[in-house]
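This is your field. Have a critical look at both lines of this record:
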Amino acid sequence: MSSEMLPAFIESSNVERKQSLSEDQEKSQKPRLGEGFEPLSKRQMKKLIKQKQWEEQRELRKQKRKEKRKRKQLERQCQLESNSDGNDRKRIRRDVIHSTLRLIIDCSFDSLMVLKDIKKLHKQIQRCYAENRRALHPVQFYLTSHGGQLKKNMDENDKGWVNWKDIHIKPEHYSEFIKKEDLIYLTSDSPNVLKELDESKAYVIGGLVDHNHHKGLTYKQASDHGIGHAQLPLGNFVKMNSRKVLAINHVFEIILEYLETRDWQEAFFTILPQRKGAVPTDKACESSSHDKKSARVEDGLDSDSSEEENSRNEPESPHLEEKQDKENSNESTVSSIPH
């Protein structure tokens, strides 16, 4: 080969070598069937299909959201047009008739309670406030002797209490601003039983959660202050498995219910929790009389059966008695004869 032909040959061979190397690289980059390539599972295929459908329906979803917003706007407009007062809540509140009855929670027992009971008292007061706000005949609600642990707990856990409406929260004792002759202390220890509520009076509920540790305390306080006292007519309408002492919010709610229905029994059974095992007194009397009758029947059956057993044990006739006596005498004589 001549010297002129040699460079051309070398160049052509280099080009061929580069082409072969690039082809090999492309082949190595392409995944071979069965080497490093795994086919998609059914679950992955379903996910891909769902994702594709989701992307395709994006515009449709936007359109549906727009239609929903328009529909809600039309519904709100229709409600505004149908209710001249604006909305149902305002219309209901206008039908409320405020009672002149004053209902006081006496919080002067703060020093007698531990923090756990103070928190329970706070919750019961919250319940009373909420129920009075939604009642058809709300009372004039007073919280007196407010301070100490209770106020501190309310400041820490319920800062919104300072904005409560339709409630008179006072640090003073109720006797300082309400006439003594207008006061009636509600206590289960009182011998006096309420028949009706006098809306010109102020009824006091003892703000004491003590789990019956201080029995008769509210009654004693009412007597010491020379205040009238009474208990709700619970025993006239309700028979309970548990004690007659009710939670503060239960007493409060029963009074609200009575002001609406003017029916003590309905008020009691609407408010009292099931755990109290409350039963109407007439049904309780019926059940007790039924129990007595069944007991009498059982006693009668027992006496009859005992008489039958005694009759079985007795000899059937006097002749048998004579025979038994003779046999016994013969046995005795035989045994006495010496052998």
Q: What stands out?
A: Residues 281-313 form the longest helix (33 residues). Strands lie at 102-106, 140-144, 168-169, 183-186, 202-206, 228-230, 238-239, 279-280. The chain has twelve helices and eight strands. The CA atoms of residues 253 and 271 lie 7 Å apart.
